[in-house]
């Protein structure tokens, strides 16, 4: 009897296959309202923002395409500007291939915005606030804006250039570094100024953090983003990267080897991000299909 209960309980927790989860995400993306769904991705340079954007595409399509430029450390191409990426546009597939999500309306947009660990609170929170207002044009050099006063910034960016509002902020925190508390503060205060955008925390590079430090860093990052105890708006994962997932043959045109665990984490992030019930302030015992 006890054993039967145990087995029933275990069956309840049996994770669904990654392929079913992927189908759910595709359905979710297809069924989204027609208007743009804008996601602002912030984090310090090198935390994995570009890798996150590319990995979120790979988790759904199964193939690697460098949509957002990554590995700036090695190429010397540090992106310090605001970049706009239409997720699953035609760059996510080969020319001769059918689209991996045929009825998807190409309306999910990720914005890659560099943040800085010692961000001067005021300037950076104004930059976040102006971005969320839709007043920062693509390509704006964020570093050059950092030494300006909020007033100067507000008088410089007065025109609304992004027609829709932002729906989510993803804060990328790399587990191999200290929590950039100033940056988190600046993002929170910029997001508050009349926007009320839900913040989702993604802890990356968990492979680079010793196990004994990982939990402490996660708790610190959750504390900073007010997400203690929340499972829906928080996910820890490694991302697709040369160090972990490249094909053994460096000339392999596929570049990255699919990885079930990374895909499961990222597909769950897709489900949380696109959950319509997520409001700016987390409800108590918030739940979503975290599988
Ligand atoms: N080991 C490891 N490396 C990662 C991970 N995520 C990203 N990287 C690497 O970290 C470096 C910086 O990533 P990138 O996406 O360019 O960061 P960004 O500056 O925030 O856009 C690149 O070399 C990535 O390949 C991860 O989870 N594990
Ligand atoms: Mg980048």
Could you please describe the fold and organization of this structure?
This protein is α/β, with parallel strands linked by helices. It has a single domain, classed as Rossmann fold (3-Layer(aba) Sandwich), CATH 3.40.50. Helix content is 37%, strand content 12%. It is built from eleven helices and six strands. α8 links the parallel β4 and β5. α3 crosses α11. The longest helix has 14 residues. The radius of gyration is 19 Å and the shape is globular. The structure holds guanosine-5'-diphosphate and magnesium ion.
| Residue fraction in strands | 5-15%
Going across the major beta sheet, what is the strand order?
Answer: 2-3-1-4-5-6
Total helical elements: 11
Question: How big is the Rg?
Answer: 19 Å
| Overall pLDDT score | 88
Work out the count of structural domains.
1
pLDDT < 50 stretches: none
Label the CATH architecture. 3-Layer(aba) Sandwich
CATH class: Alpha Beta
Order of helices and strands: HHEHHEEHHHEHEHEHH
Ligand names: guanosine-5'-diphosphate, magnesium ion
By CATH, the topology is Rossmann fold
Give a brief outline of the structure.
The chain is α/β, with parallel strands linked by helices and about 290 residues long.
What are its keywords?
single chain, 291 residues, alpha/beta, Rossmann fold, six-stranded mixed beta sheet, 11 helices, 6 strands, 37% helix, globular, binds guanosine-5'-diphosphate, binds magnesium ion
